[in-house]
Amino acid sequence: DKVLKELIEPYELRAAKLREFLADVQPRVLYDIVPLGDPYGPAVTDPELRCIVVSEETRKGGEAVNKKRLENGLAALELFEIQLIKDPEHGRNEEEKISSSSLRQRLLGTLLRPPREAPTLPPRPYVIGLTGGTGSGKTSIARLLGQLGAFLIDADKLGHAVYLPGGPAYERVLAAFGAEILSEDGTINRKVLGAKVFGNQERLKSLTDIVWPEIARLVRKEIGEADAQGNRGVQTGRSLLCR
After folding, report:
1. pLDDT (tens digit, 9 = 90+) per residue, 170-209?
2. If you classify domain 5-107 with CATH, what class do you get?
3. Domain range 126-242, its CATH number among 1.25.40.20, 3.40.47.10, 3.40.50.300, 3.40.50.1000
4. Segment 160-171, tens digit of pLDDT
5. What DSSP line would sit under 209-240, residue for residue?
6. Would you give the distance in Å from CA 202 to the centre of its chain?
7. Quick check: 239 pLDDT over 60?
8. CATH 3.40.50.620 location in the chain
9. Does residue 54 or residue 130 have the better pLDDT?
10. What is the 8-class DSSP label of residue 157?
11. DSSP assignment of 54-121, as one string?
């Protein structure tokens, strides 16, 4: 349930940064950094522990730890509550406290790693894919890129186009799934087709093997046209940017 969980750093890197912080703050302090595989960790099994540090919002978690300790025949821990530090630079959609969730949100739009060298690829057009689930922000990001001069290619629209009569996938889809997928006007009824393939991995693969290469060809064609015009472009839905 973490915000932007994809941007959470690996455990090894987080532990290394914590060690560096502890060494800077108090080099003489003794500590043991332990990965947590459940909500409790060693706090409910280690008889040597005497105290647990909590905040106002995590006090219930501390109380849950003590309940587990008592169930395990261990003494309850002293709950030492600290105040959370407010972030004076927090944005409107960020938490007031200093928060890793807010820090991850601020990473959006930044380069996380240097671009990989690909000498076999031409320097232009530069292609960026935008992809994600419903409500993930593809359309908003594409609109912002368009305002910066990007040429937009909507792969969802191209996906609809390949099914149309005369489209590159129409005849093959019809041959593979039968005339019962047609509407009265001769167009492919996508709901009927969907009912045939979804939940059936073999049929779904047969459909994607027909449709996806055709969508890719249309995308490459539009990228070439964008490049010839000197444009930059982004494809939304299952998406691309060329610069």
Report:
1. 999 999 999 999 999 999 999 999 999 988 999 999 999 9
2. alpha beta
3. 3.40.50.300
4. 999 999 999 999
5. HHHHHHHHHHHHHHHHHHHHTT-EEEEESS-B
6. 27
7. no
8. 5-107
9. 54
10. H
11. EETTTHHHHHHHHHHHHHTT-PPPEEEEEPPPB-TT--TTS-SB--HHHHHHHTTTS-SSPPPP-TTS
CA angle (112 as vertex; 106, 117 as ends), nearest 5 = 155
User: Helix, strand or coil for residue 26?
Assistant: coil
CA distance 125 to 60: 54
Q: What is the mean pLDDT of residues 21-29?
A: 91
Dig out the tokens for 78 from the structure.
Answer: 């002293």
Convert the pLDDT of each residue in 26-36 to its tens digit: 999 888 999 98
- Would the CA dihedral through 84, 85, 88, 90 be positive or negative? negative
Give the chain's end-to-end CA distance (angstroms, integer).
35
Query: Are the beta carbons of 150 and 144 closer than 8 angstroms?
Result: no
How many residues in the chain?
243
